[in-house]
Amino acid sequence: MKNFGFLLLFALVAGVHGFIGMGINMYHPFCTYTCSSILSGSIYLECSEYGIADDGMSMKKRDETSLTLETSTNCMQTDPAYLSTVAWCYYEYCEDMGTTELEISWTNQNVSIEYSYEQALQLGNPNETMAADAEWLNYTMWMNPDVYHNNYDTYAYFSFQETMHARFGFSLLMVGWFFCGLGILYRVWQTFFPRTSMMPLKLSSLFHQHLLIPALIGKRADTPLPADIGYIPPRMVSLGIAIYFLLNLLFCAVPYHSVAGSTWYSTWRREIYAYVGNRTGVLSFANLPLLILFSSRNNLMMTLTGWSQTTFLHFHRWIAYICVSQAIAHSVVYTAAYLEDSGSAGLAAEAAQAYWWWGIIATIALSLTIPFAVLYIRRRWYETFLVLHYILAVLAVIGCWYHIKLRFTTEWGYMYWLYATIAVWSYDKLIRLVRIFVWNFASESAQVEIVTQNLLMITTYPSMTRGPGQYAYLYWPTISLPWTSHPFTVALSGSKASLLPILNSLPRPVQSNLSTSEKFTSESGIGTGSNTDMDIDNETNSSCNNHTFDFSDDRLVNVFFIKPQTGATLSLQSTASKAHIPVSVPIIVEGGYGDSAYGWHSADLIIGFFAGVGFSVGVSYLQHFMDIHGSSSKNKFVFAFTCRDLDTLLLVSGLVNSLKSTRQCVEIITVCTHEQDSARLDISGLVASNLESIYQSSIKSPLARARLVTVIACGPASFMDDTRDAVANAQKYRELGIHVDYCPESFSW
């Protein structure tokens, strides 16, 4: 069971006896609680005693003026006048409750340890009504009705508000589950009925074309906003975020009203401040479990829904904005509340208490996670961002913990939100350690080799292989900070003996003074791309070969192709460049993550668009495609690749040709864009031409079932946006019985 299971268990346990109004009954029954609480701490009895006030004065400076009259709990539990007055209040105002229920309430509210409810009734009979401003109680009296009703209304409405806080918070958790439930339903349908539409074809076409696939505005989905401030989520994700945001806004805004004659608050503004402050505080807590869950690597929902890590991180960021906004609102509103109630002196006195400044620490730490996690910082100082993000997150949770524990202990269930948050977080870290142990059991150091001027090939020896499109996090403890890792797609996976022919066929860096893109483009190419099985010079292959054939080596290997950027990957390149043979580097692999594109293995046509180092995703799918459909001519894989340099183009062409061998079920299209005026890969044209070909084929040879096309893409941001736009426009073919699914492998984190 993954960390989502912790939230499910949390919901079941907390829903039974965890929250106010959902297991915890605050001030229930209201009538008995009102009777036993009205006089508590506000009335003097015959057993009241003088005590020394804690005003900071030394004993030498004290005199009789520093003594205060106090009524202890023991005094109230034994005083006949007090007990009989409370008992007669029970009798007068709790007519709907039987004697047994009243006795239970008397015991639960700890009114007396010596007398039962019925015994207390016998201690005295009331003959007059207590004054509203009475200070002393020397004999049995009727409770003042105005005082009673004002207190009753205050307790009842405050309890109602606390119940709404908990229910709204729990509802947010349910909304997160509901969204994931829709994703699971869609995934199950796509898995078992990939060629059957869930809705009428016309409606399905409109749904996919205008809601599920496209960017929110224009084409921008993977391309960052100006100044690297972040991303705009795709339209469907944006809709989900907007619904969640509006629900949070609504839950923070309603329902509130002031209680006439409230006995707790000096003004109606002070009362509303309290309700809004408590609501925003609880909802901020309620968002924490989903906030952590959606950022987790070990998120079961990624597997069940088929959504990518990128999608969940979109939700993670916006839930963080909401959570931080509510925490700030909670702090600001309570600051205004104490200023309203008792001025700056009262605020200073309250702020001096430990629970208050722990809350301030939590709010500040949580707030700082936002500016220090903007894309500009993540891209340029990723390791710094990661360490700082963890420190601030831990500090925020610790601050929340002590804020609640010092203020309420564990009485009202607020800690359950933190229990869930810590459980999800801890489980993710535990499973990460398990993955590291499993993947690195009896493993060896990685082999790092420069295969082009801008590309490293890393060969690892894990305990298991992975499926298409999956990725792993790599740690280099001798090169970078040991707790930092980076995700890379597993390009090739299998036994070393089976992969050696492919690896040995790879060209190594070559020099070329290529001047025009026509050198890589044929007249038969589609659009401005090329359609060619590029031949690799055998002499170049053999002379640059650094691997040795050993077909008896059955060790499992995973091969990664990495483009050095900054930090650890740049250090790797520097280390490998000093040697002319593969270099052994200690490595820790945490995998495998990600999920394969649903339905890809049963698709009639797979169109893969890959650019730059994104070819690793394409090679991964192509390897498994050949294992499944290599001997079949019914399924086809179009491998479209573009890059800026010749060496990478030769490398990828060599990989694809080695994987497909002489079989005709794979079509290779390559375009080199090394010059500013070079030919570009015509993504829209390529999609349209292939779909039109399938449509014409379906007319000539009609089938009872629909055709299934899967488009897989991985590459730079603008390239991914162009692919998304082309696939969205191609959804009109759904009306013609051709289902086009889009599976982006985007790492725009």
Structural description of this entry:
- The chain is of the alpha/beta class and 749 residues long.
- It has four domains: 255 residues, no CATH class; 97 residues, no CATH class; 119 residues, Beta Barrel (Elongation Factor Tu (Ef-tu), domain 3), CATH 2.40.30; 145 residues, Rossmann fold.
- 50% of the residues lie in helices and 12% in strands.
- The protein contains 23 helices and 17 strands.
- Strands 9-10-6-5-11 form a five-stranded antiparallel beta sheet.
- The protein is elongated.
- The protein starts with a helix and ends in a 5-residue tail after the last strand.
- The relative contact order is 0.09.
- About 7% of the residues have low confidence.
Count of discrete alpha- or pi-helical segments spanning 4 or more residues: 23
Alpha carbon gap, first and last residue: 26 Å
Number of domain modules: 4
Derived from helix and strand composition plus strand pairing, the structural class reads alpha/beta
How many beta-strand elements? 17
Q: Roughly what is the average pLDDT, rounded to an integer?
A: 85
Radius of gyration: 34 Å
Helical content, roughly?
A: 40-55%
